[in-house]
Amino acid sequence: MAGAIDRRLEELGIVLPEAAPPAGSYVPFVTAGPLVFVAGQITLWQGELKYLGRLGAELAVDDGYQAARLCGLNLLAQARAACGGDLDRVKRVVKLGGFVNCMPDFTDHPKVVNGASDLMAEVFGAAGQHTRFAVGAPSLPLGVAVEVDGIFEIR
Question: Domain limits of the chain?
Answer without folding.
Answer: 4-14+36-154
